Give the backbone structure.
Amino acid sequence: STGGSGPPTERGIFSFASLCCFGSFERGGKRMESFYLISVLYQKKLRELRSLPQFIRLCGEYPETEILIFDNSEDSALLTENREEAKRCGISYLSAGRNLGLSAAYNRCLLELDQREKDRASSGGAPFEKGENAEGNYWIFLSDDDSLFSMEYLRNVRESCLEGREAEKASGGERFPELRAGMVRSLRGPLSPKKSYRLFERAGDFVRAPGHYRGLYCINSGLCIYRSLLRKLGGFEERIFLDMLDYWLMDRLREKEIDRFWILPGEIRQDFSGASFPGRERAERRYRIYRRDFQLYCRITGRSRLFSFLMLFKRRLRLSYDEILHRVP
């Protein structure tokens, strides 16, 4: 089961056409701001998206919630299969037919959603859309394809986006955090959020309780962010292809002093592709992508060359350890 507050569990795709009832939803006579669950696929079938059943269930509980898939796969047969699967499921689907990288894929999604919100507002929408939401703001929830979210966490995020706005109005304008995130665990232990980013992590670096925070480092997966914040940043940095995009985002939010987080309860499990050693050749190729992105991240954010060298050396040691552990010939 994926319901309630218990741990997340994986299950197969079920018949969910009846749950995909997207469109506007009103509470108190006003259309609620849209909420988009975004996931980027690469060389993977749509049905293998680890939290897809939970996302579908959330859409059934909150009809103003939609799923948007951007497919970075390069295999034409796989792209066709995923496109047809998305159509059957009532899921929005985008693809450029090639691998644009994570940052460019996110920006393509934002362009699509901006246009969608603009079209809704110009088609005789409710006063809520034309007044308080004149810029076409909405919430986006980012998810890696290998993240597993409990329904407790997903519901907490969705409700917090509703309650935060209502509480702001009731309090006379007091601003609530426009970033939501959860406490993520991997096979190695706590993963996110962190209170700092440094070479050697300590147990006290990780956030272990829900609440309001500032200046955190969170991974992309499970992060919920209001569209207006990304406008202030000019979107995602497309020079960063895949890795370190989340830390770049955290640094930019801190720089702009818009780094207020609402950390919410609910279980999140993250299993990176490197959790099982993929073989020397693939591991080397993956490391080269990481090295390029990490060095670029350090240049953009002004981190020292020594820090860059030591972090890459640490990453290389972990790669060597994994290779020995899995006895790759």
Observations:
- The longest strand covers residues 260-270.
- Residues 1-25, 126-131 have pLDDT under 50 and may be disordered.
- The CA atoms of residues 187 and 275 lie 8 Å apart.
- The chain is about 40% helix and 20% strand.
